[in-house]
Amino acid sequence: MQEIPTTEELFARPFYFCGIGGSGMLPLAQIVKGRGADVAGSDRSRDQGRTPGKFAALEAQGFALHPQDGSGIVSDRQILVASAAVEDTVPEIVRAAELGCLRMSRAQLNSILFNTAGAGLAVAGTSGKSTVTGMLGWIMHAAGRNPTVMNGAVMKNFVSAERPNASALVGGQSIYVSEVDESDGSIALYRPAIGVLLNVSLDHKGMDELRQLFGDFLARSRIAVINADNAEALALLPRANEVITFGIAQEKAQIGVVSGSVAEGPIRQAALVIDRHDGSEHALTLHMPGRHNLSNALAAIAAAAAAGVPVSAAVAALADFRGLARRFDLVGISAAGITVIDDFGHNPEKCAATLRTLKAHEGRVIAFFQPHGYGPLRQMGAELAETFARELGPDDRTILCDPVYFGGTVDRSEGSERIVRLIEDAGGQAEYIPTRKACGDRIACIARPGDRVVIMGARDDTLSGFARDLLERLG
């Protein structure tokens, strides 16, 4: 295995992304190509005929795409970028090992880009990372700071006909905005100028390990931006150096809201943001519902302030923020008056935030949930079941299909049927229907005017197509 070269040498070599269509891989590939490197790749989903439009767009942007059979690995100068979870038996991995190619994980490569930028702005936490990264990236762009933004979700403000999958913004090298991931421990690779901590709650790791990872993250950040409303995040404040706090309920938070000023509707909300550094107040209009999104906006405003953007300018920019794909994304309202929403909710906190936003307004909720893997379902299944049972009422329905599975050696002995039993044991109304198609049939059968149908899940781009098709079926 070759040693990692200098940054200049790195981008003089060709890159090959195994799984180039993934939510973490695609934006990174776009940024690397934007730096002038030759980029090729493969994806199992492309070979299976899934989301052909996404791969056609990548080819139109100049990416050379190959079958995932090893044929694209042709030189020992190629740098193979692959998730650490990719099996050693995948043909690209086998061929790269035979040639002695340098192999890097997505996080390793992203951290090099981040740490060698003029200033890296990192967004961490169990939930809300993609939304805050999109908000912060948009604020920095609107402020003329020419940021490069690495996100895990499509940012609607940056979508164009040429770049329909705009989960990255390729800007300059002075500001690099990126979400950073605790689930694989790679958050430890980043050295932020500004580190944002949104929340700390159960996801892929136990709480003790999360506290250590996030505490170390704050200690490495020159300026820490911390959610004062989240007790676990606030408890880590002593680990930080310079700090800016934000919060809705916490009256001592430096970036907050004026009490009684929040006006929330089903698709937008307004509030008076207060900068307690000087007592100034700024009228915020946010085209995203839910208390969690107001908190996300405060996080982005506070991080931008730490980077030198006036609070007034950040608040004004967010009035034009159009949101992210699959983050409480309104697909449409059928002629029969049934609303369909596409959402990335997949862990207990994300699901709870989405369900609370739905339950703040009139109408029955039908929540379809496709778990994003068998492993995560074992890790957090009980908490997910508790969330659906607690947040939804007796007239609402939760429908689960089997977890997403694209192949591999994962243990599939325990699946969604266990979660349905746990929801029912806790007093909730739930159904297990193995296939997604059959779930769509069931939803079309039971949905009635005034219902809100939310399609929830991660790691599967085809969920958005499922949501659009369902809307058409609902008349």
From TrEMBL:
Keyword field contains Repressor: no
Residues of the signal peptide = none
The UniProt GO MF terms for this protein read: ligase activity
Database matches in InterPro entries: Mur-like_cat_sf (IPR036565), Mur_ligase_C (IPR004101), Mur_ligase_C_dom_sf (IPR036615), Mur_ligase_cen (IPR013221), Mur_ligase_N (IPR000713), MurCDEF_pg_biosynth (IPR050061)
Q: Where is the Mur ligase central domain?
A: 123-304
Residue intervals of the Mur ligase C-terminal domain: 326-459
The portions of this protein that span the membrane are 297-319
Would you say which domain of life the source belongs to?
Bacteria
| PANTHER family assigned | UDP-N-ACETYLMURAMATE--L-ALANINE LIGASE (PTHR43445:SF3), UDP-N-ACETYLMURAMATE--L-ALANINE LIGASE-RELATED (PTHR43445)
Q: What is this protein called?
A: Mur ligase family protein
Q: Which organism is it from?
A: Pelagerythrobacter marensis
Lineage, please?
Bacteria, Pseudomonadati, Pseudomonadota, Alphaproteobacteria, Sphingomonadales
